[in-house]
């Protein structure tokens, strides 16, 4: 990977050679552990400048302590989340909403969306979530003693629930999974092509629901009011695209990392099988140990942050995988301890943009693990196979071939 020039205002001694894309353990690696590989940054300074730490190849200040990350995420007057990252890939200019809006307009849209993702709304979805999990796992159990847990369970489970939540037809599941994969993990050709397809799909769906509303997410959005007016087309698109992207890959990835961990740690599997009441807490510890999201903010002004001369327009990286392995926050952060208490992890972010879908995501992960452990015997990574993991702007796991019996 080429190294970008370091801006003049960055003192040379503050430049670090770590990034989430190409440092050891970050590129696709069989049997890799990108989360453990990230933890090396805690031996270094609280903040350093990485010349290449975004997917588009820009440099960023890397915040290595969880407490400092919380400060950045909370101080929206200093650090903006307005990047138009999705639209700019298409040569356009509109924010995904509410993620790329700063306060006060962020709050207007967030309050409108909150009820759709409330614990009550998630509780209503719970029977459907469980039914989806049992159907998939029963099919896996009856078809042999091995499966690809990502392809056969994590993706169809997470994406299926998500489509149901949005009111989208389930027969298009594979198409949506392919779009999400191209968008999040594709190359420079596939990524913008997928972005264009998703935008066209959201626009078309919005137009259909405007004409003939039904009882679903998009109908709610096209009929919603903010500040006494209906939403403009670009706002509907900004919300639709964000929710589509935010929910498609994240839950499947979390379940994949969890099952990979359990496949390698049979005593923890046994603990959760014997005492399923522990699964809720265990899922929190697994979320802490294996988070997937890398958050970026843009400095709104020149700021001296813990000795770093951040200049207006600089990128600031708050990686949840770095925060969650901070020894100042967690004792033995690189040990997965399913009985750990008081877990205050960063996996769903912090501050005004804290994940809107966290209640839904948590219920899906817990139900997925409960049903998997209840219906399948002790499982391990299939001999001769190696799950491929990768770092980047969204950490991920592929080809998780498990066997049992
Ligand atoms: C394990 C699964 C998930 C993880 C780890 C996760 C993580 C995150 C993180 C870290 C943020 C903050 C981003 C930032 O501040 O830059 C975020 C925001 C968001 N997430 Fe999630 N997410 C998950 C699942 C979901 C699901 C299932 C949905 C929707 C169905 C969702 C919808 C959103 C939305 C709309 C935002 C933006 C909130 C705002 O700007 O106010 N997420 N998520």
Automatic annotation (TrEMBL):
<keyword id="KW-0408">Iron</keyword>
<dbReference type="GO" id="GO:0016705">
    <property type="term" value="F:oxidoreductase activity, acting on paired donors, with incorporation or reduction of molecular oxygen"/>
</dbReference>
<dbReference type="InterPro" id="IPR001128">
    <property type="entry name" value="Cyt_P450"/>
</dbReference>
<keyword id="KW-0349">Heme</keyword>
<comment type="similarity">
    <text>Belongs to the cytochrome P450 family.</text>
</comment>
<dbReference type="InterPro" id="IPR002397">
    <property type="entry name" value="Cyt_P450_B"/>
</dbReference>
<dbReference type="Pfam" id="PF00067">
    <property type="entry name" value="p450"/>
</dbReference>
<dbReference type="InterPro" id="IPR036396">
    <property type="entry name" value="Cyt_P450_sf"/>
</dbReference>
<keyword id="KW-0479">Metal-binding</keyword>
<dbReference type="GO" id="GO:0005506">
    <property type="term" value="F:iron ion binding"/>
</dbReference>
<dbReference type="GO" id="GO:0020037">
    <property type="term" value="F:heme binding"/>
</dbReference>
<dbReference type="InterPro" id="IPR017972">
    <property type="entry name" value="Cyt_P450_CS"/>
</dbReference>
<dbReference type="GO" id="GO:0004497">
    <property type="term" value="F:monooxygenase activity"/>
</dbReference>
<keyword id="KW-0503">Monooxygenase</keyword>
<protein>
    <submittedName>
        <fullName>Putative cytochrome P450 127A1</fullName>
        <ecNumber>1.14.14.-</ecNumber>
    </submittedName>
</protein>
<keyword id="KW-0560">Oxidoreductase</keyword>
